Amino acid sequence: MVKIFIDERELDVAQGTTILKGAESAGLKIPHLCYHKAFLPEGTCRMCLVEIEGIPKLELACSTQVRDGMKISTKSESVIEARKGVLEFLLAEHPIDCPICDKAGECKLQDYYEEYGSFDSEFKEAKEKRQKRIDIGKNLLHDQERCVLCRRCVRFLAEVTKTEELGVFQRGIHAEVSTFEGIPVDNNYSGNLAEICPVGAITDKDFRFKTRSWFLKSRESICPLCSRGCNIFVESHQGFSRFQLPKRVYRIRTRENQMINGFWICDKGRYDYAYLDQERLDKIVVNNSQDSHSWPEITSLVAGEIGRLYHMKRSAHIGLILQSWLSNEELFLIDKIFRDDINIEKICFLDPPEENADDFLLTAERSPNIRGAKELGFDVQPADWEKFFDDVDLLFVFASPIKNESDAEPLKAALDKIDTTVLFATHNHEINSSFDIVLPMSLIAEKAGSLTNIVGSVQGFYPALDAPGDCKPAWQFLVELANKLALNLGFYNQFSSPASIREVMKKEISFFREEQ
Amino acid sequence: MADKILTKHFGLDNLFKIDAYLKNEGYAAAKKALSEIKPDEILEEVKAANLRGRGGAGFPAGVKWGFVPKDIEKPKYLCVNADEGEPGTFKDRYIMNHNPHLLIEGIIITSYCVGINTAFIYIRGEYEAVALRLEEAISEAYDKGFLGEDILGTGFKLDVYVHRGAGAYICGEETALLESLEGKRGNPRLKPPFPASVGLFGCPTVINNVETISNIPSIILNGAAWFCKVGLPKDGGTRIFGVSGMVKKPGIFELPVGTSLKKIIIEHAGGMKEGKKLKAVIPGGMSAPILTADEIDINMDFDSLVEAKSMLGSAAIIVIDEETSMLDVLRRVTKFYSHESCGQCTPCRIGNSWINKIVKRMAEGGGKKEDLDKIIQLANNMLGKTLCPLGDAAAMPILSIIQKFRDELETYFEN
Amino acid sequence: MSPELTDRTKKKIEEIASRYASKEAALLPVLHLVQREVGFISPQEEKQVAHLLDIKPIKVEEVVTFYTMYSQEVTGKYHVQVCSNLSCSLLGAELLIDHLKDKLGIVEGETTADKKFTLTTVECLGACEQAPCMMINFDYYGNLDKGKIDDILDNLE
Hints:
The complex is a heterotrimer.
Chain A: E1 2-6, E2 9-13, H1 19-25, E3 49-52, E4 59-60, E5 71-73, H2 77-92, H3 108-117, E6 134-137, E7 140-142, H4 152-159, E8 166-169, E9 176-179, H5 191-196, E10 202-204, E11 216-222, E12 231-237, E13 249-254, H6 267-271, E14 285-286, H7 295-311, E15 318-322, H8 328-341, E16 346-349, H9 370-375, H10 385-388, E17 394-398, H11 405-415, E18 420-425, E19 437-440, E20 449-452, E21 458-461, H12 474-485, H13 498-508, H14 510-513
Parallel strand pairs in A: 1-5, 15-16, 15-17, 17-18, 18-19
Antiparallel strand pairs in A: 1-2, 3-4, 3-5, 6-7, 7-10, 8-9, 11-12, 12-13, 14-19, 20-21
Helix pairs in contact in A: 2-3, 7-12, 8-12, 8-13
Chain B: H1 18-22, H2 28-36, H3 39-48, H4 61-66, E1 77-82, H5 91-98, H6 100-114, E2 118-123, H7 128-143, E3 159-164, H8 174-181, E4 205-209, H9 210-214, H10 216-222, H11 224-230, E5 238-245, E6 251-256, H12 261-268, E7 278-282, E8 291-292, H13 302-307, E9 316-321, H14 326-340, H15 346-366, H16 369-382, H17 390-404, H18 406-410
Parallel strand pairs in B: 1-2, 1-4, 2-3, 5-9
Antiparallel strand pairs in B: 5-6, 7-8, 7-9
Helix pairs in contact in B: 2-6, 2-10, 3-6, 5-6, 10-11, 14-15, 14-17, 15-16, 16-17
Chain C: H1 7-17, H2 27-38, H3 43-52, H4 57-66, E1 78-83, H5 86-90, H6 93-104, E2 117-122, E3 134-136, E4 139-141, H7 146-154
Parallel strand pairs in C: 1-2
Antiparallel strand pairs in C: 1-3, 3-4
Helix pairs in contact in C: 1-2, 3-4
């Protein structure tokens, strides 16, 4: 450890740390544009210059390593002047696009100008004219006038995806970032470019002109579209009182987690979020009628159906089709209620089929909790449907967003022959009408719980959105159902939240006890 | 008659051919070094000679060589900086054209001292004719056993290659030179690490100017003490001063370090052209702060020029006359640096362009007094704040011209 | 569509590449070679060079557009490059540039209709003692005046 002083505040930082990292660890921010934690220091924006006692020239915080006893000033007159200088240079050749730029509200240039600048422009010359609104591939638009040449995008494509679709051409004031021969950015991580661009030079078509960043509420969640469990932010609109918006979620952003996804998320996780808002099932539907029903009513009804068969010793004729979109806690409850208490044997999984993994984050498995299901003792292999549907009186199906027709295939033929069918669904789908009872469930983004990713990391999550309409988290329904069934008096009373379920899981199953 | 080191035999016919070179002490130093002197001893001798870099920065060569780590598994490289882009500078062209073997001999001794087996001469692309001459000379040296495997039977091995640049002043900066040599854009690197530890292809690398290396053979033959006596104790040897501009006899003049600038201009370069009066002098290449006519009574060595708030740089002397507009001079300066900026870092990329735009407007008659103050502020926001010295190389002459010729510049403005 | 580089050139490229620890380092010398053979460096040449040196074409484009000596367009048989830096300007380079513009009927950056001459202004050529000077292709001409320029150009086939 090394002792340094930043603005006269004493800090202990590890040997080999840079001034910038050392400052950040103590909550002190030093402005920077080209520096990004994922890459080696670039040192070209010159925004992070600081004053070090005993050294006549200002030095870069991003690349200068601390030395014992180093006294650093981030607020001296020369540092403030240097920062203003860099800002003035950048703004001189920057188009004042703020009113139409999507980056407004989260733009480093705006932020730093407000904090360190606030001077009038003295640039009386003609700004360089460059290309704007260039489609550089996938969802990305590039504006060369806004570009500050931090090269984060170029470095990302060179070091992370190793695809190098962008380069810097020409030199001096004519230097510009561009593609070669129009060959577009084309990889599964392109969306990260719009995020790491500190200004509005690279923007996302998906977000273009849709809303302003300051209307968005950013909440932590976990991406459920594969079994990597990348950490994300779900950003939803806070809403206007006067009129309704077409959707809640406007974008998904990456959330750093060095154990799981590093600094990035893939384009699938970033862009396939329409399912959060589109075609949601948000009310209880019985026998396809318009009549409204309440949860207590339905819970009693379902408990009644189960109880009836249970007491007739016909548990073997109850079928349960699950999906790995259920959380660890929900699967644990299902295990307890359906396997232990009711003694159901017909349990199988209907997960989306595997697709191609990429060589980085995206897994071939396309649901988030397959590992969790396995650790809870479930067999996730595809079922023998003929055998499964042979003589079923009561069928429960837990379904995540069904996107492909092929996902629903095994079910369609069998449903007519079963007396009572109950679907726990999140979306409106043609197949819903084939079920007697359709119950609206919350999505992972709308509830709390934990998921186990492909390498066995158990990750907790909290609601990032409110559940729409009558949607209920599966764990809550299951606890209420269990209490109604009264087959294991008292056991389910203690479960007021997923956290309380998790506590019991830790006691009972060694896998969930291990430190995550 | 002052000692001539580098241009000693310049008058001879075909000095660039190895036979002629050999007839005039050619490769005697290399022979002596490789067979009689240990590398460590050579290093000490070069340090004692106070041979300062002749490319512009003036860093002591021996000290630089000493930074190369000894026990390291990686190969070491020597890059000879023959980019000669500093406006006003043309001395290295003379050395390489007239006496290429002197450079090659210097390369051999330097490489032997530091433990280098591959050397590149990074020569500016425009010097194609010179590059061909160098390649010829190198080929001759191979033929005679001064290069290649087992040089002079000592077991020392050295390969030398000529590598052409392609038009970029910034590639005269040592780390940009390395980038360019590696086949990339000439973008300077962050220092530390320094090239002596992490240089070409990540290996320890020595980068020295042509003239610097060309002095090595004579230091070996005559010793450090002699070298310091020829020049100054802390700044040994001679400099090849290049004089251009409004003088009668522009050209190169090899003279001891510390020779008076006034003497160089008036005696050696023949003084002002017919009917011209001296107004200003740039003493060390365009990057050196300008001197007024009153300031030319100065000794041309590193320390004296630093004291006068200028620099010796590449010892390229540009003489400006009374009839030349200083606005025009300023215009050439800003045009040059904005054209040559690599564009990597904010202050140099935008600062140089902005200043150039202002000066262009001034030259077209649209200038105002406050423009000068603005340029000063912008130049100060470049000075000491850029990734590489090009920012300083631009800011310093701009600031000095405005500071010393402000009255004249203000006469060009609209009222 | 430019033709492929000759086998001879490809062989020379291989030889040059063998001098360096990485093939990429051969890029600048190789681009000079290619420009000499083809006359310019278009994306076609860039892709060929990239392939021969095991690098991505975009890296070649980055380099070609950085250095002033590489041209992405066809230039005239004689590329007349006049120095416009300080020493040459002191000795009247501007007037000579105007003279050349008149003589050739083009402005800086243009090529004559018969594709014989391209005129550009360049920065310091390193021949200041012969100011004002110019470089035509790779040949230096110094101590110029209007008459000398006329002589030189008129004698170029």
